[in-house]
Amino acid sequence: MGVVTAKHLYQILWAASKFSRNADPAADINSYLIANGILTPNVREDSGQPEGWRDYQQMLSELALIFSREVSPLITLTPVGLAYLDGSMSFSEVMTLQALRFQYPNGHHMQVSPALRNAIAGTPFAAARSYAELQSRAGVLIRPAVLAWRVLRRLHEKNSAPEISIDEFESYLLRCATNPEFVACADAIITGRDGGIRLPRLGDRQRRNSQDWFKFLRLTKIFTVSDERRPLVTLSAFGTEHATEIDAMCKALENPAMFWRTENTSQAERLRWYGEFGGVDLALPELPQTKAEAEAAKTEFVAGEEQEDERIPNPSKGGRVRLREFRGFAAQQADNQRSNQGNLTIQSVYNAEITQTQTRLHDQMVLLIAETCRAKGAAIFDDPDSVDLLIQHQQREFIVEVKSVTPRNFVDKLRYALGQVLHYDFLRSVESQLPRRQVVAFAANVPHDSWSVRFVNEHLNVDMLSLESGKLQTHSPSATSIELFGP
């Protein structure tokens, strides 16, 4: 993480996607990374073979750009990973959002070290089966990057240098178990700086944890980490300029309802963690951006910024919707390892061939909706010139328009999607007298209490589909729609 760039991350993730279903993906990914000079080959001493992928995949799963191979044996990208490849999220945006959203406990860090197991022997925590369960029982519920932001802001308010040294990070921030402790944490740092009691360092293992977090924070838009021998975390110029907006983001992330919380560390729960942390979440306020910052961010899109899909029924064909049987199923891989038909998720229907297109997340969402409806016995159609999906079920039709979105472009894409389904509904009315419902679908979590749900459902009588922990969620006033798109 200390040296990774936008290009590095893109190329590693692209190779993971490209070779994911090969017979020996690790060898093919390693060969690609070596041939293109991406970071180092990491040759093992015992075998003499390059093992770069073995190390780099940990970075991808730690950031929830892919599902951990422990819970999803096949290499499977998450919605955030797909969004980065699509060019809908920039490198610094991914780094900032994932740093702020990262929490303890989580579904990635599971192992209790032998030293820690010995330390908790004979205590009420000795029976904890995993690190996540141990932290949950101990009351740990924290987002470290949010804590660092809060501490820096508090130091500034108290007229103390708004910076955190690696010693202070280890001695004070790593002692916190919850985010509200930032007040006591910052005040203790000030006391130590002013000649009062100074808390001791926690030890060499914690020093490595602190260093890892410094490397992570350096890649975000809101922090700056000096490269001196005595590194300091401070607020970046961007963070300082947009401090009020980022305060609002941190406040939202401190809400206990925004945390993944469980003592059950089954595979299903760990999949839910990656589904949440690796999902695009519209419940979180957008990362602020001026026009100049938006222009500067374009340099971070390695393969170019995502362009809106502007499919319009061809006027030369009479502006008609020309349906064909949905062809997405034909590309399905035999190794998809789907969940049972009553519990489909975006990872269970994941299609590696789709990740070679320029609309990866959009097409994976289309496939999830199609699979969900096919499991209910529906007939599925599309039109490459217009309709994403037209579904026929129980003498009704459903016109579905899918969009991949971020908090920043959601309103624009919502308006565009609504215009499309209304237009397609008008064109389809010439061909079919069946009753129809219009459906807009977003490959992101849309909170149930969002204004957009009320606007679409109540004001327009249109259905909305979204993703929550990788599962399809239905927002609709129609019992028929809920039955078709629901679990």
Can you lay out the helices and strands and say which pair or pack?
Blueprint: H1 6-18, H2 25-35, H3 52-62, H4 79-86, H5 91-101, H6 114-119, H7 131-137, H8 144-157, E1 163-165, H9 166-171, H10 182-193, H11 204-218, E2 223-225, E3 232-235, H12 237-241, H13 243-254, H14 267-277, H15 291-297, E4 324-325, H16 360-374, E5 379-382, E6 389-393, E7 396-403, H17 410-428, E8 436-442, H18 451-459, E9 463-468, E10 471-475, H19 479-485
Parallel strand pairs: 7-8, 8-9
Antiparallel strand pairs: 1-3, 2-3, 4-5, 5-6, 6-7, 9-10
Helix pairs in contact: 1-2, 1-3, 8-10
Walk me through what this model shows:
With 487 residues, the protein is α+β, with helices and mostly antiparallel strands. The longest helix is centred in the last third of the chain and has 19 residues, at 410-428. The model is unreliable at 333-341 (pLDDT under 50). Helix content is 41%, strand content 10%. Among the domains are: 1-62, no CATH class; 299-485, Trna Endonuclease, Chain: A, domain 1. The chain is globular. Helix 1 packs antiparallel against helix 2 (25-35), helix 1 packs across helix 3 and helix 8 (144-157) crosses helix 10 (182-193).
Task: Compose a concise summary of this entry.
This protein has 487 residues and is an alpha+beta fold. Helices cover 41% and strands 10% of the residues.
